[in-house]
Amino acid sequence: MSEEISLLGVGDALIDRAAPKTIFAHVAEVLQAADITFTNCEQMYSDRLEHPVSRHPSHSDPANIEALEFAGFDALSLANNHTMDWGGDALVDTVSRLRERGFRTVGAGADIGAARAPAIVEAKGVKAGFLAHGSTGPEAYAAGAESPGYAPVHAWTEYETLDRQAATPKLIRSGAKPGELAAMADDIKALKELCHAVVVSFHWGIHFIPRVIPDYCYEMGRAAVDAGADLVLGTHPHILKGVETYKGKAIFYSTGNFSLELGPTHMADGNAVQALKRLHKLYGVRPDPEYPTYPMPPESKASIIVKASISRGGIERVGYIPVHINRNAEPEVVGQLDPCGQEVFDYLRSITESEELPCVFRWYGDEVVIDTSAGT
After folding, report:
1. Is 270 helix (H, G, I), strand (E, B) or coil?
2. Would you call 282 exposed, middle or buried from its count of C-beta atoms within 10 A (0-12, 13-18, 19+)?
């Protein structure tokens, strides 16, 4: 039997504080102990910020990179709806800065070839390959043949009226754009030939609304597994979503927030504040006033660290470590005997069952394991 390594994957990271490393004060020991760690970066790390593309771009001080180093991250996705907030120069600069510091970036780059290129991280002779795709950004954020951006798998949306009365909700249908979905599958198949396990990250789904998973996410996640992905990690919704076991593989439809805050820089930006207020009204979000830098839905206090054991034979076990986001927007590991730990367990199981997703969770000490044989 070949040696096993540990892979940890977490949700969205956006850091905005004077001492960046402190956001990981309660979880650094856990992250640093893993062989490979992965996160999605919700900000670009550049000082080329003269011409923001977005009206409310994410905070982007390059000093925040030291926090990612402190936590011990290895691979970083840059494929999200903030990839091009500051334009192409800032993205290219970000990729350069991160790679100079030893990070493997994936999902975005100077052109579509760079954006689709995988990152392969090796530990103890075991190779884990990473790909990342953006689904929620403007189509202009997608990379082109000679233009920077993210690797896209965008979706289409249609609305059907079922109850023909005034102001009634519509049935929403969505699906992946075929050409981009096919390109994703090709990339996964090629990467599968080069490593022992393939991890695919999607920035997708509906943010702020509990439980609901759009059709297109199911299509993309299952297509990724069909093409050879061993683990799918979803980001963007800012709250946990259900987990599906499909053909023996785990699809996490949202890993939630992990190290995400809207600190002094964001709060000083009038455009960002107004944009956030509009989103809160649209989605019915009522932030907890005791969380001043974390204006998120109450459900966003629950998060996870996805944990997988990988050998040369692929992923041997997968599950998660429960996490609670404290009042300073900092992630804290919580165990089985901690009320917050049981709340995370109960919540993730509830939102998985309510969407009728096949997945069985079991406590194993202070971690949770997933029975992947229970899926379709």
Report:
1. helix
2. exposed
